[in-house]
Amino acid sequence: MAAKVTIADVARLAGVSRQTVSNVLNSPEVVKEETRQRVLAAVETLGYRVSAAARQMRTGRSRLLAVRIETTEDGMNVFDRWLHGLTEAAERSGYRVLLYTATDDENEIDTIDRLRGEFEPDGYVLTSTHHDDPRTAWLAERDLPFVTFGRPWGATDVGHPWVDVDGAAGTEAATRHFLATGHRRIGFIGWEPGSGVGDDRRAGWSRALSAEGLDTDLDLATDGTLTQGRAAALELTGRGATALVCVSDAVALGALQVTRDVVGFDDTPVAAAVGLSSLGQPLAEVAARCVEMLTGRLSGRPTESHALLSPTLVIRKDPRS
Amino acid sequence: MAAKVTIADVARLAGVSRQTVSNVLNSPEVVKEETRQRVLAAVETLGYRVSAAARQMRTGRSRLLAVRIETTEDGMNVFDRWLHGLTEAAERSGYRVLLYTATDDENEIDTIDRLRGEFEPDGYVLTSTHHDDPRTAWLAERDLPFVTFGRPWGATDVGHPWVDVDGAAGTEAATRHFLATGHRRIGFIGWEPGSGVGDDRRAGWSRALSAEGLDTDLDLATDGTLTQGRAAALELTGRGATALVCVSDAVALGALQVTRDVVGFDDTPVAAAVGLSSLGQPLAEVAARCVEMLTGRLSGRPTESHALLSPTLVIRKDPRS
DNA sequence: TACATCATTTTGATCGTTCAAACTCACGGA
DNA sequence: TCCGTGAGTTTGAACGATCAAAATGATGTA
Description:
homodimer, six-stranded parallel beta sheet, 13 helices, 12 strands, elongated, DNA-binding
């Protein structure tokens, strides 16, 4: 039923050669206007669509961007919203998103290597960059086009394009918000030192306090769970804290059981649901910039080397009041 | 650098013809064992990977499954976990997942039509089936292989394979749980009648009460928001309800502000975080069955026509106690 | 010895597109 | 008249794989 419509069918109907049809679609400027119209009409009539496989065979370009779909331990993350934005942005640029899974960095590299031979994605988008990330170096060595959501942490910068959200600016804004509303003893509930993201978020809180000449002693590290978040909040309030800035919504949720003056990070659905104030990441824009940088590089367009976007502080009131 | 390794390179190194290499990879049983070993060694040495585009050109099969990535209004859904499971299951069967976005049914049909001409996915996985769903009929008319996560609701059944979770069985189990712990006035907070999923979940609650000869008058419809969930809970408890079965975690979260004896649906991260009891869907298994049915049909293997899986009741205690 | 049989391997064609080069033809200048 | 120029179009080849059919060669049988 309905055999595949090829470029030859269009050419026949329009009374031109295959190449002219190809030109109408790829380099319209070299074709006479009248011919162009005739070909486009034929394309429309037959419902012709260029075969991605055949095009890829000839040009070597797949119009595919590969992205790893992350596993979410506690589900309180923002990956899905970002992925949706990425898919949309990719579509606007004529690309499609191809998913893959991986268990760790090495496994991801293996998968990318396999993907590279089979589907030949034009580009890769990595997420969750971290210290000593082996993936960026591997990709850079092979000259594979990629962009990361997450800046290069530590000494592993290979000069690749990246997009990230300014965590420090966010926690600094949150801390200033508390300062402005009269708080003086503001604590921070973070992760164990060593994670780029966590240290960055701590830095913003610390910076805001130091600027006011205040002490930064109300600082606790946790494993990121709600339970430890609550415990940390209990201890910090015990030590005099009246407000808490948190590294994530998960720990903030725990802290919320201790005091209302808490700000989380990521503005996850959980935060919205329970009325937790939080720092929201501009995920759609992050995704759009990722695609822009990647496709820009793919088409030889000059692009910025990176983008650092600001989170937005969302203040919520207790829904029970 | 590192020009593409083709089947011809492998053939040359192994001292055989292209076709023999192809046979080793696709029909190993026709090749002599000794030759097979030699070819496999050459494949290994050169790091050969079959080109998906070239294979597709010849065979017409892309090894791609297309899936729409949903937008999440309140973010309290399970799509991302299901998608991860789907990607994993697809990989195990030698398929990759290609994403696309759509704004509504018609737009999705357009996109599928475009995709069909360009990337020629071997199959489609639809989610969120509903009454008068135009998508299934459209796909069935064109004989495109697909499976849905969600049964055919209403009269639009075109006899396609589907996988779904037995919502009624879930709410029935939740209701029985409350009955077993002594409750007699158990309410239901649902959605407006008309949605297949919502009506199904209401039916399970109703069935459990009727089996005990109890009245099913404690039944309210909402728009699905936390706010209306809370309002409904207030009214139902006012009318004597001591326990509430809810159509979703979102409304359950609202109800939780009124009473502890609440069960939600979907077991979202929010539920886990706030200690809300809920009905969890076996998403990984749903995803695996979707892939199994679809790839089974694609390879001519006989497959079941559908699968109805049971949710699991997760009872949680108040984390604050 | 001649021939049919079978297992194994090879050859040639093909999928649909685009690249590179060649062709056509109207036009203008010498 | 002849030729160069350039806009517009066409032709042939190639991308890398697999299908279908043909070739090869060892084995058994009449």
